[in-house]
Each structure stands twice: as structure tokens, then as C-alpha cells.
Specification:
Number of strands: 0
Number of helices: 4
Helix content: over 70%
Order of helices and strands: HHHH
Largest sheet: none
Distance between the termini: 53 Å
């Protein structure tokens, strides 16, 4: 079954504002592929989406490294899977119609990325919050 549309949902908020803001931005970027467009605009938008996704994944991994997250290696493995799917989409994009590109992006963001947030990212939230509370300056 094809996902409906690429939309941000409060159901996938982690409570970590910088992570939620980056996740929301990825959904916003994915939503730009709907509607009319030309090949050049779509390819630029796809490159922007891929670049932002890589920035987000790098930032998230750095945060997890900083707190000594035990599941970091597995988390990085999953991120590499997402990066590989993005690279494949970038490689395929020149041969795809604009509708096919938009569909693949929606599948990737609504499918893999949405599930990743709900099932994998959510696992680190408590540890990040506990780390931040333990290192916050005391007044």
C-alpha cells in the first residue's frame, strides 16, 4: 500500500527540539516534490533533500556519540541504509519521471524514515534527556 502523503505528524515528535526540528524540515523538503516542476528544479530539490538528510544524520550520530549511546553502531548502520537509498534515488533520478521521483521520495520519507523515528530514534530519547539533565548547570 502506498503511503498517503509526506506529512509531519506530532506522533513522531521525540521531545528533543533540535531533532524534531530537523525531522520536520525533512518532511517539509519532501513535500516540495508535489505539484508541477521541471527536471532541473526537481534535481536541485532532490540534492537539497539528500544534503539536509545527511546533515541531520551526522548531527544525530554526533549527539549519540557525545552521550555514549550503547546502540550507536546499530543506529549508524541503519543511517547508512538510508544514505544508500538516497544515493540510489539520486542515481536513478535522471531516468525517472518527475512523478516517479516524487513517489519514491514519499515512499522513503513516509515509509523508512517515519518508521525509523517511531521505532529506532525513540529508543535514545530517554538517555539523551537523562544525560542533558545530569550535565545541566545547577543553580
Amino acid at each position: 500500500m502506498k503511503p498517503a502523503r509526506t506529512n509531519w505528524s506530532r506522533a513522531i515528535e521525540t521531545g528533543l527540539s533540535e531533532i524534531d526540528d530537523q525531522h520536520r524540515r525533512l518532511f517539509e523538503l519532501a513535500a516540495t516534490f508535489r505539484g508541477e516542476g521541471d527536471q532541473i528544479r526537481v534535481m536541485r530539490a532532490l540534492a537539497t533533500l539528500a544534503d539536509y538528510a545527511n546533515t541531520h544524520l551526522r548531527d544525530e550520530e554526533a549527539m549519540l556519540h557525545a552521550i555514549g549511546y550503547a546502540g550507536l553502531a546499530e543506529h549508524q548502520r541503519q543511517h547508512e541504509q538510508f544514505r544508500a537509498m538516497l544515493r540510489q534515488l539520486l542515481d536513478d533520478a535522471r531516468k525517472l519521471s518527475l512523478d516517479d521521483i516524487a513517489s519514491r521520495i514519499e515512499d522513503l520519507i513516509n515509509g523508512w524514515f517515519y518508521r525509523h523515528i517511531l521505532t529506532v530514534d525513540i529508543e535514545y530519547v530517554a538517555q539523551v534527556k537523562a544525560y542533558r539533565e545530569s550535565t545541566a548547570p545547577r543553580h
